[in-house]
Amino acid sequence: MPKHSAELALDAQPRTITGRAVSRLRDDGLIPATLYGKGHDPISLQLSIRDFEKVYRSAGASSLVSIRVGDSSYPTIIHEVARDPKSGSIIHADFFRVRMDEEITSHVPVVFVGSSPAVADAGGILVRLVNELEVSALPGNLPHEISVDISKLIAIGDRITIGDIQITGVKFSADNDDALVTVQEPKSEEELAEELAAPTTDVSAVEEIKKEKLETEEVVTEEVPTPTAKIE
Predict the structure, then answer these.
(1) Are 97 and 75 in contact (CB under 8 A)?
(2) CA-CA distance, 218 to 204, in Å (whole number)?
(3) What number of H helices and E strands is found in the chain?
(4) Cα 152 to the chain's mean position, in Å?
(5) The whole model's pTM is what?
(6) What tens digit of pLDDT does each residue of 39-53 get?
(7) 105-186, superfamily in CATH?
(8) Does 8 or 214 have the greater pLDDT score?
(9) CA separation (Å) from 98 to 75, 79, 92, 195, 223?
């Protein structure tokens, strides 16, 4: 079943401060933000960092967030969040303005719930094949997350597919036959030994690449898929 968030809203104020001077906003507990959408000029905003963090934890990248500016209210989805690479604190946010009567495409997290008899009783191995799904829906119908009940996996070899998930008003981009989760036979000691003996990735090389990247970046941007919509 999909999980919908309660109505989420944020109060914001027009922002005139730009460039390096925005650091003064952060000293006052505010972050700069931008509201944009096709057919609309971008609006520079500022809002409470504490309020934004609370809403972001609930909304993620798929839930509708109402941005209130004075007497106006804009339906949006959080598009991009930038963080300081050293402290990890949020330093900027972008909001994507949507139309309530136009479908948008977004990525929604998949959460597996329950207990599989094929795992608990038969010793099978649960294999999660997806972490999120691309869906299309009106903004008001977008689920915050999609729960998949694995208690339906009774025997080894059972699987749950896209076609098994029915959500009113939501269309999936993947095919109905695409599997979300399955249960495989338990591995023998010989198979496990072979996997342990297989070459592993050079962790030190990976860490060095990460270090070089952090040293050259000023901010870390969280990747939030751009919602696709017809915006006027």
Answers:
(1) yes
(2) 23
(3) 5, 16
(4) 26
(5) 0.69
(6) 889 999 999 999 999
(7) Ribosomal protein L25, C-terminal domain (2.170.120.20)
(8) 8
(9) 6, 11, 20, 48, 19
CATH T-level topology, domain 2-98+217-229: Ribosomal Protein L25; Chain P (2.40.240)
* Span 199-229, pLDDT tens digits: 765 555 545 544 444 444 454 455 555 455 5
CB distance 58 to 5 below 8 Å: yes
* Segment holding 176, helix H or strand E: none
Return d(Cα 95, Cα 8) in angstroms, integer.
13
Phi then psi for residue 173, to 5 deg, are -75, -30
Q: 77: Cβ–Cβ under 8 A, 6 or more apart, which residues? A: 59, 61, 62, 63, 64, 65, 95, 96, 98, 104, 106, 139, 142, 227
Chain Cα centroid distance, residue 202: 29
Among 170, 138, 31, smallest CA distance to 95 is for 31
Per-domain residue ranges of the chain: 2-98+217-229, 105-186
How is residue 163 written in tokens? 């076609």
Residue spans of beta strands (DSSP E) within 141-195: 145-149, 159-161, 170-172, 179-184
